[in-house]
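Quick question: what would this complex look like in 3D?
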Amino acid sequence: EAEVAQSPRYKITEKSQAVAFWCDPISGHATLYWYRQILGQGPELLVQFQDESVVDDSQLPKDRFSAERLKGVDSTLKIQPAELGDSAMYLCASSLGRFRNSPLHFGNGTRLTVT
Amino acid sequence: AQRVTQPEKLLSVFKGAPVELKCNYSYSGSPELFWYVQYSRQRLQLLLRHISRESIKGFTADLNKGETSFHLKKPFAQEEDSAMYYCALRPPLGGSNYKLTFGKGTLLTVNP
């Protein structure tokens, strides 16, 4: 069964440094999501892409976070500079399409620790 | 605004006992409701969705629009059901703010 791939699995960085996460969705999935999950909380949507376009980034802290999906396939989420409060699990998910009413498939996530 | 509330952070039952994980939602309209599960060291995965009206691994969930609830139930819990369970809501297809919103989750432990 096809899966969403994310890398790295774990990342430790010092505050004020830059960090980047990568996600490769399931082939053919037009919609890609980045979620952040703080310990003890449910996942919270950061940004949603439909193909290469951002359709929702209302919860993305745009002063330090950026996301791109240049060719409408894989995606990168960047944080610069990282802050202590950014320590969390970053989850990528994909689905068939925004207007296809399909469920989300999640990757294993990247656990970020900022020291 | 759409919101999902799971009132229990932790739920512990014995094997063979019935289990019910509570989920209440806030949304003015007819949303789609989901239950996602995360077993230890595994990725978050879909357990069931209300429009499918199916039973997965013995679990069922009924959407009660009057009480705005979508509780997850299983008559006889098994040890392998121990996991983190998340209730999630998504507006109707084509609606505004079309995104999946999660509750904070309930950690279910099934004791032998």
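Answer marked as accepted. Residues 29 and 105 of chain A are 10 Å apart (CA to CA).
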